Amino acid sequence: MSSKIFNEPQQSGLLLIDKPADFSSHDIIAIVRHVLATKKIGHSGTLDPMATGLLVLLIGRQATQQQDRFLKLSKIYQGTLKLGEETASWDAYSEVVNTSPVPPLSLSQIQQAAATLTGTVRQPVPFYSAKRIRGERMYDLARKGVPMERKFNEVTVAWQDLRFHAPDEITFTLQGSCGTYVRSMGFLLAEKLGTVGHLTALRRVAVGPYRVENALDGQLLKTCTGEELYRRVQPL
User: Fold this and answer.
1) Half-sphere exposure (Cβ direction) of 190: Cα atoms closer than 13 Å
2) Is 48 a catalytic residue?
3) Tell me: the pLDDT tens digits for 7-24?
4) What CA–CA distance (Å, rounded) separates 166 from 163?
5) Domain of residue 101, residue span
6) Does some domain include residue 30?
7) CA distance 131 to 19
8) Which residue in 18, 48, 140, 168 is the catalytic one?
9) DSSP calls for 74-139
10) Same domain for 91 and 202?
11) How many Å apart are CA 15 and CA 194, to the nearest integer?
């Protein structure tokens, strides 16, 4: 029985993928590794399984050696926040753990609350995240019911295009620095508005200068050949 031999990629550069929902970022990376027959693939930041949008994959040694630079690029997201219900993961992929009445709100109140969460923000890290504690992913510990101390990190964010679609639903665009958890920002915004909330939709539309409009639909990956994918690799 022959085994797959992984070689240095034919071409080093960037591959832009529009990740579908219900796939983890590592699922997408595994598919690309298989199609390109290489292990030398990095990324500029992962997306949660619920989220869709832009993954910038770094193909080959020359690209992966610059991963730290790409991880530091700012990112732009579009999201939907449902007020009144908090879930364990602060998104729609876990059970509701807390409810709270939604006070009557105006768009002006929402904009004012977002303004207090603009600039440098100390955000809580979701328990359902890939951050490690003593070598274990936090989401693995959360699923096991292991108690954890809340961790925080500082990020720089800017809210844009806030819209009030229903008494309990807000859509927004958010630009965030490296390390921004949009789920956490949704949680904080709901808290500022006197209630709780969770994200029901999230899409990453940009990573630095790279836009999702120029990305390959991730649903097409399994039918692509290596040559087809290499034609989409952009030079650094």
Assistant:
1) 31
2) yes
3) 555 678 999 999 999 998
4) 9
5) 75-207
6) yes
7) 21
8) 48
9) -EEEEEEEEESEEETTSBTTS-EEEE-PPPP--HHHHHHHHHTTSEEEEEEPPSSSS-EETTEEHH
10) yes
11) 42
The pLDDT value recorded for residue 7 is 55
235: in domain: no
DSSP alpha helices (H): ranges in the chain?
Answer: 25-36, 61-64, 67-71, 107-115, 138-144, 182-192, 226-230
CATH at residue 180? 3.30.2350.10
User: The tokens of 214 are what?
Assistant: 């120029």
In a domain, 136, yes or no: yes
**Residues 66-76 pLDDT 10s:** 999 999 999 99
* Bridge partners for 199 per DSSP: 81, 91
Q: How many separate domains does the chain show? A: 2
Indicate whether 82 and 199 sit together in one domain. yes
Q: Are residues 98 and 185 in the same domain?
A: yes
Q: How far apart are CA 157 and CA 180, in angstroms?
A: 8
